[in-house]
């Protein structure tokens, strides 16, 4: 009789294990299965973080959770411009068609400052179809309209990025604004000056990325639309990118 009760107790425990792992249709879940979260790393805050999970057959639902309130029910979520920081972990709970529930987490992810925008190395500027130059000198000064100007200079060209107020820019993402005069908070202005063409000005679309590491400020942008008026009065258009570092 005692063995009978022990056997019944074993069945109750075993059933409770299956209750949390598999339901319906007699599905038996693999309690030893260890699915893996895959993340595209290394990653910079001007990139897109891609998440996915492998090692599970017939997933039905997904529940992703992560830093800064991130939540998603997509199978492979995309996080555009992830927040800079270290040791960021994303977890996912997956329920299969058979009713099995599995949970997994990513390894610690580090999101750096702007990283290799448009495939450029550091201290490079490019206007597609127009010019590409290496920055030899980078300076930081206050302009007459109370903006702060960081300028990367080569022998034949320069790229100028202006920021609001008369102080060096804080780390963050700035929206591009054309025109002239003082800039509002969160905005930046970009021009490229080439000795052989009129000035190229970025239109009011796109973003500037600023990363600060100690005394070094990195200014980056990718695929901004620049326009320049030639002597004949027509307007030329080009995509521009840059990645250059300034140390006072």
Give a structural overview.
The protein is elongated and about 75 Å long. It is built from one helix and 21 strands. Helix content is 8%, strand content 48%. The N and C termini lie far apart (85 Å). The protein is mainly β.
Order of secondary-structure elements: HEEEEEEEEEEEEEEEEEEEEE
Low-confidence spans: 2-24
Helix content range of the residues, please?
Answer: under 10%
Query: Beta-strand percentage?
Result: over 45%
Shape, please?
Answer: elongated
Please describe the biggest sheet, giving its number of strands, its sense, and whether it closes into a barrel: 5 strands, mixed, barrel
Radius of gyration: 27 Å
Distance between the termini: 85 Å
Category from helices, strands and their pairing: mainly beta
How many strand units?
21
Q: Total number of helical segments?
A: 1
Strand order of the largest sheet: 16-17-18-20-19
Mean pLDDT: 86
Give a short synopsis of this structure:
The protein is mainly β and 248 residues long. It has one helix at residues 2-21; strands at 36-39, 43-44, 48-54, 59-65, 71-72, 78-80, 85-88, 91-96, 101-105, 109-112, 124-127, 131-134, 137-142, 148-153, 157-163, 172-176, 187-194, 200-202, 207-213, 216-229, 235-246.
Chart the SSEs and their pairings.
Layout: H1 2-21, E1 36-39, E2 43-44, E3 48-54, E4 59-65, E5 71-72, E6 78-80, E7 85-88, E8 91-96, E9 101-105, E10 109-112, E11 124-127, E12 131-134, E13 137-142, E14 148-153, E15 157-163, E16 172-176, E17 187-194, E18 200-202, E19 207-213, E20 216-229, E21 235-246
Parallel strand pairs: 2-10, 16-17
Antiparallel strand pairs: 1-3, 3-6, 4-5, 4-8, 7-10, 8-9, 11-12, 11-21, 13-14, 14-15, 15-17, 16-19, 17-18, 18-20, 19-20, 20-21
């Amino acid at each position: 009789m005692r063995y009978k009760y022990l056997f019944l107790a074993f069945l109750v425990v075993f059933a409770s294990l299956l209750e949390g792992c598999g339901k319906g249709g007699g599905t038996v879940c693999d309690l030893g299965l260890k699915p893996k979260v895959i993340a595209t790393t290394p990653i910079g805050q001007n990139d897109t973080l891609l998440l996915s999970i492998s090692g599970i057959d017939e997933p039905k639902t997904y529940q992703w959770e992560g830093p800064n309130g991130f939540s998603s029910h997509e199978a492979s979520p995309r996080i555009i411009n992830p927040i800079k920081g270290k040791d960021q972990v994303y977890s996912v709970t997956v329920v299969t068609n058979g009713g099995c529930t599995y949970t997994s987490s990513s390894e610690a992810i580090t999101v750096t400052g702007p990283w290799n925008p448009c495939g450029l190395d550091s201290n490079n500027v490019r206007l597609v179809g127009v010019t590409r130059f290496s920055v030899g000198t980078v300076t930081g000064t206050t302009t007459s309209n109370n903006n702060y100007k960081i300028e990367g200079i080569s022998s034949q060209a320069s790229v100028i990025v202006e920021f609001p107020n008369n102080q060096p820019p804080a780390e963050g993402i700035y929206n591009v604004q054309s025109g002239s005069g003082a800039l509002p908070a969160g905005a930046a202005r970009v021009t490229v000056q080439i000795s052989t063409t009129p000035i190229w000005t970025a239109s009011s679309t796109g973003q500037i990325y600023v990363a600060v590491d100690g005394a070094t400020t990195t200014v980056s942008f990718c695929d901004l639309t620049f326009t320049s008026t030639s002597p004949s009065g027509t307007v030329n258009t080009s995509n521009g990118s840059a990645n250059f570092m300034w140390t006072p």
